[in-house]
Amino acid sequence: MKLVTGNDLETGDVIWWAGDGWSRHVAQAVDAGSAGESIGAKEEAARRVNGPYVIDATLTADGPRPAHIKDRIRAAGPTCRPDLGIKPADANRGDWVI
Amino acid sequence: MYRYDEYDQAAVDARVEEFRDQVNRRISGAMSEDQFKPLRLMNGLYLQLHAYMLRVAVPYGTLDGRQMHMLAHIARKYDKGYGHFTTRQNIQYNWIKLDQAADILAELATVEMHAIQTSGNCIRNISSDQFAGAAADEVEDPRPWAELLRQWSTFHPEFSYLPRKFKIAVIGADQDRAAMRLHDIGLQLYRNDAGEVGFRLFAGGGMGRTPMIAPVIRDWLPKQDLLSYVEACLRVYNRHGRRDNIYKARIKILVHEIGAAEYARQVEEEWAHVKTLGLDPPAAEFERIAAFFAPPAYEAGVPDTVDLSDPDFRLWVDQNVSAHKQPGYAVVTISLKPREGIPGDASADQIDVMADLAERYAHNELRVTHAQNIVLPHTPKRDLYAIWQALDAAGLATPNLDLISDIIACPGLDYCALANARSIPLAQKIAGRFADLDRQRDLGEIKLKISGGINACGHHHAGHIGILGVDRKGEENYQLLFGGSGAEDASLAKIVGPGFSEDGVVDAIEKATDVYLANRTEGERFLDTYRRVGMAPFKEAIYG
């Protein structure tokens, strides 16, 4: 599957295209199919995202998992500071990031 | 310490308001990211993996308690309660919001701080010896010259759009604690046979993907000619530095390609013109600047001895306290490398503790080191025990300066958009493997430096043991290097062989230390043994 991701313009937060808007949670990301580039361009023009790009991901029973380690770290937060991650209460987060 | 005059303050304040307007225009849509990016970078604001990152300049690594408290305040109010001290003697905040960036800069300006020259293809924040003005082996304090260079380079119109970034270091001792020869320009104050103090100028050093040790360009430069000569160096680089290829744009490539002698010839030719322009400041202006760096009011009669009956305190003094030029005083290095900690990170509370200690005991001065530690440069020996107790209570008394766990590590892939692999977890694993302090001390000085990417922000080329993280088909992989040094015996580390997984590189380092222990002679450091016996026995132990 293809995901669209970028950073929120004002906060810098990592965000994921969720079909009808952006989410901070990769679990809510949707498959953009072949429309990723155009979604990114349109949303960037509307200043709803900064630096959007399309990535490969795998859909698992627990949600989308980015293919590359860099995007998995973006999804979950720095591995060296799990307390600062987007889902600090997720006990399983380390199982799929690395 | 240098204090802003009305011009400095006005320039910084104006810059803050200019940036506030630029941010507002970006948020309103009046500017695109392509238009805004170079402007935010000129104000130290990057976009990293998780958020905006603000890099705040600490000119030549020197700051006072008031400024240090402000750094803690920024961490607490605008970030997530901590900051990361960097190999450029600066501090970075990792979780900045764009709409608060100008407010942060405004608060920094109230204590004479800013984020100018921390990014972009300009002359970056000048770096220096963290022991400047205090070291027992110093010829002369380099900081007045670093400050002069700061003033000269700030907003220098001719050098704001260089082919690439440009880094200058100034030291005043034979011992190089600033990796001076790995800078674009390195300046060393030294005393000649006639007893005069002047500069030896090096140019064309650097790390990154093409590491180079800077050759001598001018062996003797009268101090009063510094600015005009450095201006000439920059002009030749600005004229001939390659703008067509970002990987060949640094001055090191120019000096390497045309040769040091030819580069020096062109600089001399340019200087013959530049020095007629009246650029070098009159002696009175330099003396005005130098007066800010007068030694602190040392107390007379401070005892020169320390009660070392507490064994833990004794260990810390032995490892982290260095000789001061003033009897009764010492230089304290506070390790930001606690066990299981993150190299260079300090919480807001810890930053406040260090500021308090500087204000209470150490003539209100602190330094940031390129090895990501903090220094109290002027500490009465009488107060060392009280300082150690306060540091210990704050988790800041790790006695590991220059040992294998005193690791330089860049933020790596945990934070950095340019990194290929994580640095911090690897640093923690290595420090954990060698956690036993007796073992570390038996191994002696080992400078271990980790970069998570080819930009070499973790100085792996200059590590006795260096590690470079690479991306191998989407997996983290680590190249191991031996034999580098950023000190006065500068050398570039060499790759040992094929790369390793994270656990594999920790095992390889342990095997290398075993080779060192088996081969060392009396007084030899790891680096010395490696230089004497060569790579072969290390390679055999690791791959054999």
Notes on the protein architecture:
The complex is a heterodimer of chains A (98) and B (544). Chain A is α+β, with helices and mostly antiparallel strands and 98 residues long. Chain A has one domain. In chain A, 23% of the residues lie in helices and 28% in strands. Chain A has a five-stranded antiparallel sheet with strand order 3-2-1-4-5. Chain B contains 17 helices and 20 strands. The model of chain B has no long low-confidence stretch (mean pLDDT 97). The radius of gyration of chain B is 23 Å and the shape is globular. Helices cover 37% and strands 17% of the residues of chain B. With 544 residues, chain B is α+β, with helices and mostly antiparallel strands. The relative contact order of chain B is 0.10. At the A-B interface, helix 2 of A face helix 13 of B.
Annotated CATH topology of the largest domain in chain B: Sulfite Reductase Hemoprotein, domain 1
| CATH class (first level) name of the largest domain in chain B | Alpha Beta
- Number of strand elements of chain B: 20
Please state the overall shape of chain B, judged from the principal axes of the Cα atoms.
globular
What is the total number of structural domains of chain A?
A: 1
Rounded mean pLDDT of chain A is 91
Main sheet of chain A?
A: 5 strands, antiparallel
**How are the strands of the biggest sheet of chain B laid out side by side?**
1-2-5-4-13
Q: Strand pairing plus helix content of chain B: what structural class?
A: alpha+beta
